[in-house]
Amino acid sequence: MTTQRAHVRQRADGATLVCVYLLALLIIPARLVLSFVPMTLPPALVVALMLGVLWLSAQMVDTLGMGKGRNVVRFAIGLYLAAHLATYAVATRRWLPTDELTVADSSIVRITATIALAVFICDAVRTKERLDKVLKLILGCAALIAFVGLVQFGLGVDLASYVSVPGLRTQENGYAVMESRSIFRRPTGTTNHPIEYGLICAMAVPLGAHYVFRARDEGTPYVRWLLCLALVGLGAMTALSRTAILGMTVAGVIMVITLPRRQRITAAVVGGGFFLGAAVAVPGLFGTLRGMFSNIEDDPSVKARTADYAAAAEQIDLNPWLGRGFGTFLPTKYTILDNQFLLTLIENGYLGLFALIGMFLAAAYAVVRVRMISKDEHLRGLAACVLSAVLAGGIASITFDLLGFGVATGLVFAYIGLAGAMLRIAREERSSAEPGPAA
Predict the structure, then answer these.
(1) Under 8 Å between Cβ of 147 and 229
(2) What is the pLDDT of residues 257-312, one digit of tens each?
(3) Which H/E stretch holds residue 185?
(4) CA-based angle 178:391:42, to the nearest 5?
(5) Contact present, 144 and 183 (Cβ < 8 Å)
């Protein structure tokens, strides 16, 4: 009996450490940062930096189970890191105002930690079962964030403000906890902004649908997954964000393409019924969502985005290849750019922009490749979920400055790392299934 229990018990591994990071990222409110360091440093970034050191150490030995060998996602992430380091070197070599230099120093720490996290996930999550655990945790945390946001939306009560952790202080970041649009409050959950909140919920919607269908096919309880799906779906809608709606649309298109026909029809019926039910339960919600797109040409936020393009072009011409320095285009000093690709072009130049787009494309290629080579329907379904999340992150980079929001950035990079891990798992399973050479 003791031997059987020892065999069943799962030892802590790389996926366990990834789960620790995700809990620090998604559960601890984003406004809480370390109180004993001068720079703004959330607990999740500290964990990410530690994972980066651990990855580097594990690459020097062969006894810790860290993945090695070529991986298209890890290669693309490495190019993105190289672009950032080159930009930082060029930017700090020339004169920068003190405020911009300070932000450049802290920004390179934050982006390096986030990149280290993606690389660690790519090499440390080694089996389908551990991958499954990580994605279930993401869904559960997103559902909890959605619940906090729905309480904010419906009751105007911010549950996140009651969280207090020793050693952490509340950071004032200039964003209101609950903004308003039309007649509704715009929730933030445990994040910093409604757009960030909506994106996180939208990226979790395909995961919720996948686990509901899987549980029903296996005859196991699925109510908890249905509840998670309902929470993140309603959370994405009540964020009143075009980014969230576009993210859910991407998820819907991918589900239509990848689900079996019977499940495809069920998803369409349930999704339509859920949307109508939410519109009935929250009067005025449907009209507000429709107005966000029907009057888009007259929307003040859209006009503000496009009005800055001329000034942005002037900044790009000053340092076209490597940019002026990551984080140095201060919104309080210059202007707010709700377009991460455009902001990257200013701060990191064309090389940085190509590296960022290449990283998204590499992650998308990895999960598409998984669906091509894997025979496991569960892994193929998870690949479709990760593809939805990666594409949603790419779309979000057009609709707001993604890298300026730590929770959304951390989760998008986690999905990118999971895409690489998934490809490694699928290739190893295919290699083990292939018959060996005849004796």
Answers:
(1) no
(2) 988 888 888 888 878 877 777 777 677 777 777 777 776 666 666 666 666 677 78
(3) strand 184-186
(4) 45
(5) no
